[in-house]
Specification:
261 residues, mainly alpha, 81% helix, globular
Length: 261
């Protein structure tokens, strides 16, 4: 996304649009429905697509303003939000492990956002955008919770992309971003790597591994993001940055462990 010469929100639009034809082909090949959904399911897919579009818009803006490690950790904060929502629905207080997860997440967030504020207000705003992205992603997962049990994965991704792409384009135009790129390869890489391969492998893994295993595997993302930020963009880390990331990562592990039980 950082290497694209379009705007950050426009890059999210191209991610969905460029991946859409292949998503539809995969859905058709796997005999998954592309139309004729029940009205309630249609509303759910559209709402999920809009939430996913807002997630991408917030996250892409945040990625451009803060460090990659922060962006990746805060973008995955949806796990903590889902845990908190589950506790509200169950009308019970958190258990010991859940209290520890919330405390670790809060402590790590304070450390990381404090470091971002030391760097500059733009980095602090970037962290906030990535946290907002985590909220929208949690909403996206909650909306699709029932739909994923009834519809095929590729048809859901395709339907959500159709619903979310116009919103991303509208936001990009409203912000005055450059939409039409001159370099296409970063956008095609984003569409193929994130939307097709990344989402596709994640959906496949959900059928074969426990949530704890998937959660631990996803925690490799911040490490990769930190290395990319260091070598590609010259970002530096201090001991406090490492401590903050470790606390947030520990919180995500505790949440996933609770899900596995």
């Amino acid at each position: 996304m950082r290497l694209a010469d379009s705007g950050p929100v426009a890059a999210g639009f191209w991610r969905l649009i460029l991946a859409l034809p292949l998503l539809l082909v995969l859905a058709r090949t796997n005999r998954q429905p592309l139309h004729g959904f029940p009205p309630r399911m249609t509303v759910a897919v559209i709402a999920a697509g809009l939430a996913f579009a807002l997630d991408l818009a917030s996250w892409h803006i945040g990625i451009g303003q803060t460090r990659l490690g922060n962006a990746t950790l805060f973008g995955n904060s949806g796990s903590l939000i889902l845990m908190a929502w589950g506790l509200v629905r169950l009308r019970r207080w958190p258990r010991t492990g859940e209290w520890l997860a919330l405390a670790a997440a809060l402590g790590g967030t304070v450390v990381l956002m404090g470091r971002s504020l030391e760097i500059g207000t733009a980095s602090f705003a970037g962290d906030l955008f990535c946290l907002l992205a985590g909220l929208f992603y949690a909403i996206y997962i909650l909306i699709l919770h029932d739909a994923r049990a009834r519809l095929g994965n590729w048809s859901l991704l395709g339907g959500a992309s159709i619903a979310g792409a116009p919103l991303l384009l509208g936001i990009a135009l409203m912000l005055g971003e450059p939409v039409w790129p001159h370099r296409w390869w970063p956008l095609f890489t984003l569409a193929l790597g994130s939307q097709i391969v990344g989402q596709g492998l994640l959906v496949y893994a959900l059928r074969h591994f426990r949530p704890l295993v998937i959660g631990l595997a996803l925690l490799t993302q911040p490490g990769i993001a930190v290395l990319a930020g260091r070598f590609a963009f010259g970002e530096t880390l201090t001991v406090w940055d490492v401590l903050g990331m470790a606390l947030v990562a520990a919180a995500l592990v505790l949440v996933r462990a609770g899900e596995a039980k």
